[in-house]
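Q: My labmate handed me this sequence with no annotations at all. I'd like to see what the chain might look like in three dimensions before we decide whether it's worth expressing. Could you predict it?
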Amino acid sequence: MLIDPFQRPVTNLRVSVTPRCNLRCIYCHREGEEKPRGEMSAEEIAEVLQVAAGCGMRSVKLTGGEPMLRRDLCDIIASVPQGMDASMTTNATLLAERAADLAEAGLSRVNVSLDSLQPERYQQITGKDLLERVLAGIDAAVEAGLTPVKLNMVLIECVNEDEVPAFLSYVRNNRDLILQLIELMDWNGCTLHGNIDGVEHEISTHAKEIITRRMHHRKKYCLDGAEVEVVRPLHNTEFCAFCNRLRVTSDGMLKPCLLRKDNHVDIRGKHGEELAACFKEAVARRAPYFR
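A: Here is what I predict for the chain of 291 residues:
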C-alpha cells in the first residue's frame, strides 16, 4: 500500500476517461484539467489500473467530462483488475440506454450529478433541457443493480438551496438512493456558495443516526427513511487529513490534489516499473491543501 508523507494511505483512484461533456454546468471543475492534450487509450487506462492495483489501490471511480461519451467505456470497465471495485460519476443523460451493459462489464454503482428536480432550473444550471433523460437514467441504474445510486447535488446560492426538501422526498424510503449535498468549489467563475452550514445543521437536528465515514471524515445522516451525506471540501482540515485519493487526468497525468496544478506527474508513455515509480512519486508529492 502507498502511504504519503502525512501518513495517509492512498487506496482510491479517480480516472478521468475524457474531458468531453454534453453539458455545460456553471460550476464544473473539469477534474482540474485546463488544456488536455488528448485522451488516453483504453489500453493505456488498463495498464494504469493494473499498476494501481499492484500498488494496493482497492477502488477506482471513472469520471470525466462525461464518461459515457467514450464508446469503449465498457472495455475500460472490463479491464479493471479483479478485486478492484469500479464505480462511475455521470450526468446520467446517456445512462438509460447503457446501464445494463455497464453492469455486465463489471461496474458496481454510479454517482449521478443532479442539482435540480425542476426542468427550467436544471437547464439553467447545465445548459440543456435533459432532466427527464437523467431521471430515466437513474431508474435504469437501479434496475441494473448499479446501487446505491448517489445523487450529487451541489448547493448553489439563490439557485437550488430551496430544493433540499424535494431531494429528501425523492430518496426517502428508497434504499437504492443516497443524497450527497456538496459544497460548491470556486471553479469556472462560479462563487455562489449555498448555505451548507445551515442545511447541514437542519438535517442534523432531525437525524436519527449520524455516521462518520472514513473517507474525508464526511458525515452521513439517517433521517425519516432517507440517507444524506454532506461533502465539504473547502477550508476543511479533516477533509484533507482523511483524503485517500489519487487522480489521473484524461491526458495521462497523475494529480495528487484536485486543488493544485503544480505537482503533477506525467505518466504518458510509461510502462511497468517506470509507471509504478510514477505512482510512488505522485504519492510522495501529496500534501493536505488545508491544514
